[in-house]
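Schema walk-through. Below, the input block comes first and the output block second. Nothing else is stored per chain. Lengths vary across the set, and this one has 306 residues.
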Amino acid sequence: MTVSMRVPGLIVANYGRHFLVESDTGERRICHSRGKKSQGVVGDQVLWLASEDEGTIEKIEPRRNLFYRQDEVRTKSFAANLDQVLILLAAEPEFSASQLSRALIAAEEQHITPIIALNKSDLAEPFARAWTWLQPYRDMGYDVLPLALAHNSEADRAALLQRLDGKTTLVLGPSGAGKSTLINCLIPGALAQTGVLSQALNAGKHTTTSTTWYWVDVAKTTALLDSPGFQEFGLNHIDPAQLAAYMPDLKPHVAQCKFYNCSHLHEPGCGVMAAVKSAANPEEISANRYKIYSELYAELKQVRHY
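--- output ---
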């Protein structure tokens, strides 16, 4: 009788208490988590044990980082071991400054490189307006990439592949931004494969996947993770006193504060408040960004009181 060995694998899709795990040889099979708690997320490196046509996840290896999402009830992890997050916005429909800032703060806190991509550059007037609005983010040093995904241009594909090459990237974006177009541009037929996979897994037995892993290249060095919707990012684990440290436009001014425990909301001699004037000067903090900081600080402070 042979004893089954624990095999290294990668979680490539999450179906509630079931996971799709890929082995080093490329074989994929449904695995269950051991015990009552379902701790795994897409991007986790695991050790799993085969059992007939399925398997059991025995161990989750230590993570480099972890992304959270948040609903009205709880904070939940949804992707791990990322190199980058690509935040896809569009000239139309108008995007949320608050959602963008939350995504950037979540990435900064976990030491994940963010890329902002602005789609629909073919819509001249709305695109020019949105591109100007993103100027403070370019001033902060963020990579902001213009795209026209509907045209499926080779230039756009090359620009994306250059940034994604050899990395694991989570793609996020609100409805209508063109996320499905982007994924199909880089991996033709990827979303169709997901549909076939969902049917094969039987919708009654497995809930719809929340995040899915795709290989971009045959050598499996470049990966895209697709997460439906543009979730409210889980920032509840962040200490409000640390919030300014994850906002590159606020961070340099903290050193100028008179008090070491300054909240940057009302204290005299606050370096951050002194820098909030207009968006015209890159050395200053835009009123819009300061408003987002104030709202997030209040939200995180409230969480701490529960």
